[in-house]
Design brief:
Layout (H helix, E strand, L loop, with lengths): L4 H7 L2 H12 L7 H8 L2 H13 L2 H20 L10 H80 L8
Helix pairs in contact: 2-6, 4-6
Length: 175
């Protein structure tokens, strides 16, 4: 039975060939996907992530509610309010904030999805190498078992020969 190794290698994808090369060289596949992903981030990406992280925190909610409360109290209690009730300017500020915050949060979520894809790809590579290593271990164990079986059969044959010599050739034949 001949195996076309070159054909099998060509049939593998680029990632699988890279994993096979790592296995043959006995090098590690593992790496920190966070470091790989963070190396690709631009200043704008990092800023958007920080804004999204702050905008989704209790600190932001408490500060924002406090600022709104102060805004409303200042305009209700003041003799010359800059934004009298029904707080049209406050509504405009809130609308602008929502209009800016929504795309920033979406950009951050898109980057998180890309990071998740990178982590999934890394997990696949590690799992593939582990599967290949386990298969190689199984082959080695099977080979060792066959060698031990052959050695055991050789010992048994020698024992039978010795038994036949001791009994003078009258030992019953083995099936």
């Amino acid at each position: 039975m001949t195996v076309d190794l070159q054909g099998l290698l060509r049939a593998l994808g680029e990632r699988e060939r890279a994993i096979l090369a790592h296995m043959l060289r006995h090098t590690r596949v593992t790496r920190d996907p966070n470091v790989v992903f963070d190396e690709r981030l631009t200043f704008g990406d990092r800023l958007a992530d920080r804004v999204a992280a702050f905008g989704g925190s209790w600190t932001f909610i408490i500060l924002f509610l406090g600022a709104m409360g102060i805004w409303m109290l200042r305009n209700v209690e003041s003799a010359a309010p800059f934004d009298p009730y029904p707080f049209i300017l406050l509504n405009l500020v809130l609308s602008c904030l929502a209009a800016l915050q929504a795309p920033i949060i979406m950009m951050s979520q898109n980057r998180q999805a890309a990071k998740d894809r990178l982590e999934a790809q890394h997990d696949y590579e590690v799992n593939l190498k582990a599967e290949m290593e386990i298969t190689a271990l199984h082959l080695k164990l099977d080979e060792l078992r066959e060698q031990q079986w052959a050695a055991l059969m050789g010992v048994q044959e020698r024992q039978l020969e010795m038994l036949q010599r001791l009994t003078g050739g009258n030992a019953p034949a083995t099936p």
